[in-house]
Every structure is written in C-alpha cells, then in structure tokens.
Amino acid sequence: MKKRNWFVAVLVAVVLVFSTAMANAQAPKYVFFFLGDGMSATQIQATEAYRTTKNGGSATKAEDLLEKKNRLNMCKMPVAGMQTTYDAHALMTDSASSATAFACGIKTLSGVIGMDDTKTVSYKSIAQLAFEQGKKIGIITSVSLDHATPASYYASVPSRGYMNSIAEQMTRTGYDFFGGGGLASPTGPARDGDTNYNIWNLLDSEGYTVFNSRETIMGLINSPKSKAVCINPWLPDSAAMPYAIDRPKTNVSLREMTDVAIACLKHAADAAGGQDEGFFLMVEGGKIDWACHANDAMATIGDMLDFDRAVGSALRFYRKYPQDTLIVVTGDHETGGMTIGHATTAYTAYYEQLLGQKRSYEFFGQNQWKRHKEKYSAGYDWTPSNNLESNANMIKLIKDYFGLDWNTLNDYQKEKLEDAYDKSMVGENDNSAAENTYLYGYYEPIIVTLTHILNERASIGWTSYSHTGVPVPVFAQGKNAELFSGFYDNTDIAKKMAEVMDIPQSLPVEK
Ligand SMILES: [Zn+2]
Known about the structure:
- By secondary structure, the chain is α/β, with parallel strands linked by helices.
- The chain folds into two domains: about 25-340 and about 465-500, Alkaline Phosphatase, subunit A, CATH 3.40.720; about 355-460, no CATH class.
- Helix content is about 40%, strand content about 10%.
- The chain has helices at about 5-25, 40-55, 60-65, 95-105, 125-130, 150, 165-170, 200-205, 215-220, 255-270, 285-295, 295-320, 360-375, 390-400, 410-425, 435-440, 445-460, 490-500, and strands at about 30-35, 80-85, 135-140, 175-180, 210, 230, 280-285, 325-330, 335, 340, 460, 465-470, 470-480, 485-490.
- A ten-stranded mixed sheet has the order 5-6-4-3-7-1-8-13-2-14, sandwiched between helices.
- Strand 5, helix 9 and strand 6 form a beta-alpha-beta unit.
- The two termini are about 40 Å apart.
- Mean pLDDT is about 95; it is low at about 15-25.
- The chain binds zinc ion.
- Zinc ion (ZN) binds near residues 38 and 467.
- Zinc ion binds next to helix 11.
C-alpha cells in the first residue's frame, strides 16, 4: 500500500468509528413505547371531557377543557403524528396484525403474530432487535402476558390462540421484566394445535421469579430484581387485570407496574457497567379495547386514565434523563366506533351523567346481575311489557350502579331496557334475531343496553362491537421525537423505532 493510500484508509476508519460513536450518542438510551389498545382520538377526547367534568368544569366549555389539569399527559407531548391501521387484508385490523406491524414492521393477517401473511416466515420484533443490541427489555400489559400485543414483541405464531406456545417463547426471551396480567394457558394447550408446556416450570428453569402480591411487586421498587414476572393478584377475566374502576386497593395499577418496571430495568442496565445500553419498555393498556368492545364508556375512561398515569411515570423518568429518553404513545386501532356526539343530544354534551356509574359492565355482570338473575329468573314469563319496571330490585340496581333513574328515562329508552331485560332473563323477547344481534352483539343484553343509554345521555355514541378502521394519533417526547411527526403507516412505527435506536438492520428482519 502506498503511503498516501494508507493515510486515506486510516482517515476513513477514524471517520467511521467516530460517526458510529456519534450515531450512538444520538440514540436515546431509554425508550418507552405506550400502546393503548383500541385507543384513537375519540377515546382520548372523551376521557378529557370526563376529567374536565369530574374536576368541576364543563365539557361544553373550551376554557375548562383546555385547563392543564384536565388534559392527558399524552396530549401535552410536543410532537404528534397519525398512523393508518389497516392490515394486509383488512381495513379493520385485529390486535395481532397491528402489533406485528408496529413491533416487526410488516403487514400480516388478522390473528397472526410475528409472521407474514403466508404464515411461513417469522420476523424479529423491535424488542428482540433492541435486546440483541444490549438493551434490557420490559413488557407490561393489563391483559394476559401471552395476549396478542405483548406476544408480538417476543413470539412468532400463526394463530394468536396458541397461547401456550406464545408463553413458551416468552420464557426463552431473556427479557428482564414482564408485568401486568397472568397467563391464559400456563399448563396446557389453549386450543388444538397448541403446545403443552408447564410455563411456570419453564419460567423457573429460565431464571425468572414470579411475584403476585401487591407487597412483593411494590417491594421491587426499592429492591429491584432481574428477570421478574409481576402478576397482579386479582385476575377477574381471561387472566387480565381488573378494569381500573373495579380495582381494589390490594391490586397494582398500570402506573405502579410501570414504576416497578422502570426500577428493575434501570437497575439491570446500570449493572451492565461498560455494556450499559439502557432499556426498552413496552406498556399496553389492553382493556381500553375490551371496554370499547362492550360499549362501556366509563370502563374505557377509567382504563384510559390508568394508562395515561403510566405515561406520567415515564415522563417523570424523562425529566431525570431528558437527553437520554424517548417516549412514544399511540393506539393500535379504534374499537367500538366510539363517537363524541349522538343523534339524541346533537351539539350538547352531558358528561355529568357518567359520574353515576360505579362499576364496569364486567364487574356488574359477574356480581350484582348474576345474583339478581339467580333470584328472579325462575318461572319468568317474558310476554308482559313491564317486567323490568315492576321489579324494584332491578330498578334500584340500575340507579345504584349506573346512576340511571327510571323516572327520567323516555319511553323509547324504557322499551329498549324492557326488551333487553327479557332477553337477558330467559333469552327471548319480541325483537327479530337480526335486531337482537345489532342491539347487543355478544354481550349481556340488559348490561350493554344500560351502558348504551347512559352513554347516549352523556352524548357518546357507539357503532360497533368490533374494531374500526380510523387512523390513530401518535404522541412523542424526548430524544429524536420529531421523527414521529407526520401521517404514516403503522409499519413505519417499527421502522422509526429501529432508526431511533440505531438498530443496524433495516426492517422487517427475518428470524
Ligand atoms: Zn379488540
């Protein structure tokens, strides 16, 4: 090599090393990704309108709505964007294909996790790629840890229903923290074709410790541990945490779970010493979606507030490490076709109506309604038109749990409730089958009709029991947050995350 060429080679090498170091210095060390399942602009606006009312203001006054204390943390972030949510073959995505899009950067079929739409090629998620880069990884969800959204960050399966197989893959991730709900199929196949592992044994042999009391979980804030699986003590439905509005004090909120994860991940990252690459934490508010499927605005709003408080925890961390932290908040799709406004209320809103609802549709169904039905369904004749009105116990339950006073309802609302009550009590009423499907979906007729009427009176409408195809907002704050402004596709979220974290491969990356 000639002397001059040698000099050029050295110069190029120095520039390369220097530019890599510069790039690493540009990348945020601590990355938070918050995902409100089923959360779009409507869920956000309804929650702010509710909070304004709860704080003594009016949801019909801009001055009150704009007050800082009534705004959500996510809405105060400096960068906002919007993403399209359709999957490879549907305008309305499900949570498996949407999570695969923003975790792996690829569009796929509804129901498929971490694989393409032929169900033959598996892809790495942004969390797996960050893990390979040396970051500590945490996954939190208010639903079960093997549910579609968290699963997309560590598993590849042709069907989201293979929850035992998903959980088995979870045990082999090497991730530092899992928290929230439990496991849907910890000791056997969830359905035909699924695996048959004992997940508790696998977690143990892979070095994980399971914590499932409030005391032991919260204790991790002061005594953080690596490889922790934190499961809320009460899992009322499908191994998910309860709705925030039903949560007893002995449970753990999403914010608290986030605080615990931050403590554990920061501790593990610091312990890596010279290899410290920081962490990536994904937090899912998974039951916003479930509440929207059931058309229950108050359960939705309760979980939205819980989710936004978890965002607040990340913001507190950001204020300590502003040069090293990035926070991104978005939803995977809208659920329920929720609207701000209703045919019966036109341009006015009455959010104070919502203040009377004490529990979610789920809690009411599992407790008060179950007991009521057991007591009154024997010998029930659905043909009289005033079965509900003549049952003082049910009229009182409606007032106590939904704040609805029978005497203030109009004739149409009363008729809808009478039909729903008959249908719930004995499975029959004078509606056509198609009308019943439209009115109740797959939900308990009397309960979904109660939330419909209460929500309508507040000026909130619902058009579906499924997901809808509207685009959803994205909020970002911190290092390189500007990258998340604009209107883009959900697969771009994964690509932007990879760019921001300096992941060398371009997405999607095959396993
Ligand atoms: Zn859903």
